[in-house]
Amino acid sequence: MKKKILLFICLVTVASLSFAQEITQDWSSSLGELRGKDNIAAKDLVHIDANGNTYVYGSFSEYFTIGNTELEPIGNSAYLAKLDNTGKVEWAVALQGNVTPAYMTTDAEGNLYLTGGSDGESVILQSTDGTSKKLTGNDHALWSQDANTLLAKYDTNGIIKEGKIFLHDNSGYTNEVLPMGLTLNNGSIYLALNIIGETTIDGSKFSGTTATISESTTAIGVTHILSFDNSTLNLQKEIASITPENAIDDWSISSFAMTSNENNTYIAFIAPAKQKVMAGTSSFNTDFNYEYNEADEWYEYQRGICVFKINAEGNIDIHKSFQSENKVRLWAFGYETIDQILIKEDSWIIAGNYNGKFVFNEEAPATSTYSSAPYFTLLNKNTADSQKSYFWEEGNVLNYAAAGNALILCSTNSTNETSTLKAYDFGTQNVTDLTTTEAGTSINGVASTGAKVAISKATAGAEVATLTVSMNTLSGLSGINSSSVNTIDVKVYPNPVTDVLNFSEVCDVTITNIQGSEIKVASTTTQIAVADLAAGYYVAKIKTSNGIAVIPFIKK
After folding, report:
1. What is the pLDDT of residues 475-528, one digit of tens each?
2. What is the count of structural domains for the chain?
3. Is residue 553 part of a domain?
């Protein structure tokens, strides 16, 4: 049965029987003019909550007016703004004092959880109720703006509920606490921190590791995944850790992504050589090799991506490494990224940029040493086996990925400096170009839920950039294999069919052609005659008292 459905999907793709994917704008709202070239080029974090509100979390360094609110920066600050489902700015607040946005999410009640890099003597979290929360930091400006990590909670009205800064304990240029990922799971906040040196969180110490490099000891980062109470932001426990093994160079994680689904946590990372992963009572080691190149007097490392799943009990029940035979220098790892990890139906989606050879498809053209090309790949959610991968040409960089009814992908062309939005239809497995910006306008952030796609854009002028946020509707999708429609498990057979299509339980059924036109209707039945239909591709829309399903089939 599954093979036949896959055949149908492939045939649709090959024959280019297209569901013409289009994106239309519902509303567009200006956030104002943003000064400072660093802010113009910065990413915006965009999120759509369950009620259709849109949140934007970005950077600013000069006075910035959003709606009717003027925000004052202290150093390189961050702003947080809410727009309702018509595009009206409801409120905006500033996070003052060297804050670089990193991750944002919301819970079912609309509460926002934010994290970001932080440095400076203090951080002030503004609130819409006229109060603010001041957090004590430590100044590490000579090293990195992101040497510490901020974690904050706002309610849906923009009132600050709680905030914390996680500080490295040791002074020096090699000590950092950097955010790597944020997700909500099991009623808690899961925060991934890459710790170089040592830090103390709510009385518990967490540390990195060290390596001997050129006869000197060097601090190496260890990634700790920690859970926090979603009300108090107090530390609960360590969920997992990723530790470099037998380090002879700086081979901590170079890219990381994390998400949650049905109380499971899915993680993907890129790191050189060997890493030990621990969660609960389980553990495993990656097996990426390295060797010393005598001629060049450099270590070279096998490239690869590791994925693993932590179940609701806190143990690892799936892990897999994907690796290429080519070896690269350590600094080349910065060109390979995992920018997003998503769960959609039965697939585990990883999207980012690859350098050198593509580990999910060795037939993909290799990139040059100091370049990359965008990709996404679908893995089986239960086995991590590779199902499908897609890549495009070198010279583009994937910036964002989001999954609603389709997988939305945003890339930037390094030559003409335009941003292109693509959509991958989970049913037809087609990728469609939705829109491309004009030179000078960049897409700074993307979010998607259902058919809705929120987009943040920056249009650069001589000294300022105009920021706009829009809500858009994606249409023309096949609807096949969409979790938003398939809420019941009804078997349809045989497929392909000649005379009679059968259903595994009593249902109401509507048969449509590939264009969506209604062909046949039947009520309270377990079968429907299709002998009179022309050979081709059709969809059965099935309804029972427990839900609905949309199932494709072939009429021979």
Report:
1. 877 654 444 456 678 889 998 899 999 999 999 998 887 555 678 889 899 999
2. 1
3. yes
What is the CATH classification number for the domain harbouring 526? 2.60.40.3080
Asked whether 241 and 223 are in contact (CB, 8 A), the reply is yes
pLDDT of residue 235: 97
205 neighbors 197 (Cβ within 8 angstroms): no
User: For residue 554, what are the domain limits?
Assistant: 1-17+478-556
- Which of 34-48, 177-191, 242-256, 426-440 has the lowest average pLDDT? 34-48
Rounded-to-integer distance, Cα 32 and Cα 25, Å: 19
> Which H or E element spans position 520?
strand 518-529
Q: Across the chain, what does the average pLDDT equal?
A: 84
Measured CA to CA, the distance from residue 225 to residue 182 in angstroms comes to 9
Residue 174 is given by DSSP the state: T
Cβ 84 vs Cβ 107: under 8 Å: no
Give the dihedral sign, CA 115/116/121/124: negative
**Which residue from 175, 183, 285, 304 is spatially nearest to 241, judged by alpha carbons?**
285
Tokens of 427: 């049913």
Q: In the structure encoding, which two tokens stand for residue 445, read together?
A: 């952030």
E-only strand ranges, 221-274: 222-229, 235-244, 255-261, 264-270
- Of 354, 361, 271, the C-alpha closest to 307 is 271
Side chain identity at 288, as an amino acid letter?
A: F
* Cα angle, residue 385 at apex, residues 381 and 390 outer, rounded to 5°: 95
pLDDT interval class at 119 (50, 70, 90): confident
Q: Answer whether residue 519 is part of any domain.
A: yes
Can you give the pLDDT at residue 472? 94
Angstrom CA distances, 338 to 108, 254, 402, 442, stand at 27, 9, 13, 21
Please indicate, yes or no, if residue 376 is contained in any of the structural domains. no
Over 60: is that where the pLDDT of 2 sits? no
Catalogue the E-assigned strands of 97-221.
99-106, 112-118, 122-126, 132-136, 148-154, 160-166, 176-185, 188-196, 198-201, 204-207, 209-213, 216-220
Domain-located, residue 246: no
**Looking at this protein, which amino acid is placed at residue 355?**
N
